[in-house]
Amino acid sequence: MSITSDLMICPMDGSILKRVENSLHCQHNHQFDIARQGYVNLLPVQFKRSRSPGDTKEMVQARRDFLTTTAYQGISDHLNQLVLAESNVNITDTSAPFNLLDAGCGEGYYLARLNQALTNAHNNVQTFGVDIAKFAILAAAKSDKKSQYIVASNKHLPLLDAHFDIIVCAFGFPCFAEFAKKLKPNGKLILVESGEKHLIELRNKIYPSLKAYQQNPYPDAIEAGLSWYKQDNICYEQLLDKSALANLLLMTPHIHKASHEKKKALENLSELNITIDINYRILTKNSAE
Ligand SMILES: C[S@@+](CC[C@H](N)C(=O)[O-])C[C@H]1O[C@@H](n2cnc3c(N)ncnc32)[C@H](O)[C@@H]1O
User: Fold this and answer.
1) Which of 84, 136, 215, 278 could form an SS bridge with 131, CB 3.0 to 4.6 Å?
2) What is the DSSP string of the chain?
3) Domains of the chain, start order
4) Tens digits of residue pLDDT in 29-88
């Protein structure tokens, strides 16, 4: 789907954006061009802390290549099930669109599959992906023509308040106050996070010892007007070949922490069986907020 703008707001002043031909305009004459690939950049330079924030082009390509192996398809399938279950509860008024945001969507693997699952089940669905990395949004917009992709930060989402049924934040950077503002009352925030045993075989090969696992209690989520609602987990094993392993290392922060010898040893592996252990933590927006 190309950019329709009906939920987008100006990152400079918060006023509603209107689409005029191939750009979005606000009433104060701020203008944002829609790129040829169909995404829009709503991250003004003054909001950037570096020239190319977020994942690099190489990390985005490695994640794209890794995800095509289907090693993480189980994570996506389970996310789809959770979102569909919530959408069945939430969709009572079929004339109002069901809006889902993937905040920190990367190259769009999870969002494209969510769009497919939701549009198979419901008529009036809009899916949005935000990421601070332009290369990630570019890759996502090229391959998924059904979602609307925006370069922006989770800290300042250029989207209307109280319009989202679900926000997904997968292996990302949750900004609870901002997410809470964008959710409808009773809307859900789904955090997809590494569980205790996630990639343990790989981590054992990199680190001399592993830190005790601790789930983040996220006190700022409660302060933002969200409440813990449900928790779920999946755990399975997956055999990765040499190239999948190399891509996995490039797309995670672990490789930067490995010594030269450990990196070499990993490069020499022809395959590795890894554990995929994922926690899904769901919060609900308090209706009185
Ligand atoms: C570990 S990746 C996960 C990407 C995707 N959710 C996935 O699981 O395939 C984290 C993503 O968050 C993005 N990111 C980092 N800081 C961000 C911010 N402040 N706002 C939005 N996205 C951000 C990165 O560019 C990167 O694409």
Assistant:
1) 136
2) -----TTBB-TTT-PBPEEETTEEE-TT--EEEBPTTS-EE---GGG-SSSS-SS-HHHHHHHHHHHTTTTTHHHHHHHHHHHHHHHHHH---TTS-EEEEEET-TTSHHHHHHHHHHHHH-SSEEEEEEES-HHHHHHHHHH-SSSEEEE-BTTB--B-TT-EEEEEEESS---HHHHHHHEEEEEEEEEEEE-TTTTHHHHHHH-SSPPPP-----HHHHHTTEEEEEEEEEEEEEEEEHHHHHHHHHHSTHHHHS-HHHHHHHHT-SEEEEEEEEEEEEEEE-TT-
3) 41-285 (3.40.50.150)
4) 999 999 999 999 999 888 777 878 889 999 999 999 999 999 999 999 999 999 999 987
